[in-house]
Write a structure and sequence with these properties.
The structure is a single chain. The protein is mostly beta strands. It has a single domain, classed as Roll (Thiol Ester Dehydrase, Chain A), CATH 3.10.129.10. Helices cover about 15% and strands about 40% of the residues. It contains two helices and seven strands, in the order E-E-H-H-E-E-E-E-E. The chain has a five-stranded antiparallel beta sheet. Strands 1-3 form a two-stranded parallel ribbon.
């Protein structure tokens, strides 16, 4: 959908509150229908969840050579999006912290429609030391 960012992601240089990429798209009826089919729910009201607003906003600014592991997500839904309306997305670095000697990054994206209706707020927690995954099962590796 969008190209990779222009700066290498360096955890220590990230600033809490830093604005990430912003973008917009029109939610089509086909997008809504495809989402509903994929989740096998003909009434599913929030296809925006499938768009990965947070990852897209981060990748507009940064490219990440080290990767990360999804450590959790929080999603707040406010109003269902309306097909045919433009969706405006803005992203930011919401937090970063170290827990058990592992760095974590929190990316937040907020989506509103062209009428200013708040649609969703999404936070993704990433552990930025992916080589740590699996060590508890393989202490030698």
């Amino acid at each position: 959908m969008l190209s990779q960012g222009t700066k290498e992601l360096k955890y220590d240089d990230l600033v809490i509150g830093e604005e990430l990429g912003s973008f917009e798209y029109v939610l089509t009826q086909q997008m809504l229908d495809d989402f509903r089919e994929s989740v096998e729910d003909p009434e599913a009201p929030f296809p925006t969840l499938a768009v990965k607003h947070d990852g897209t906003a981060l990748n507009m600014v940064y490219y990440d050579t080290t990767g990360g592991v999804n450590a959790g997500n929080e999603v707040e839904f406010f109003n269902p999006p309306i097909p045919g309306k433009k969706i405006l997305v803005s992203g930011r670095i919401a937090d970063k912290y170290v827990r058990r000697d592992k760095p974590y990054l929190v990316i937040e994206a907020t989506a509103t429609d062209e009428d200013g209706r708040l649609l969703e707020r999404l936070r993704t927690y990433q552990m930025k030391k992916p080589d740590e995954v699996g060590k508890k099962w393989n202490p030698q590796g």
